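Page 42, continued from yesterday. The earlier attempt failed because a stray header line got pasted into the input along with the sequence. Redoing it now with the clean sequence only.
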Amino acid sequence: MCLKIQVFRRYVPHAATDFAILFFSMPSFLESLYYGHLIPEQQLIPKDPQYRQLSRELSEATMAWKEKLSSEEFAELEALIDMQQQIQGMEMAAAFAQGFRLGVGLMIEVLLFVE
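This time it went through. Structure tokens are written below.
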């Protein structure tokens, strides 16, 4: 058994040891980040049941507009859609950073909690 799990078992109640074994047997977050395996934006697939349906509807609507518009007009529409996606990407990055800061702040507060 690795030293991290032994130390964890010493200070944490038995109920959490299964989590510790799973957590400490995985590659560290730092290693995953260093080797380029930790890319949150590529692993983001919403679990909302409407996601796939809305995505399909958007694709169908886009194809319908492609048939209705001239190639120049559709290119302009695509440019607008691309700008919207860039804005959404910036918003997602800002939300991720804010969520990360919040999570780290919570961990610091929990670890340093003094009554």
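Notes: The radius of gyration is 23 Å.
Reminder to self: strip header lines before submitting.
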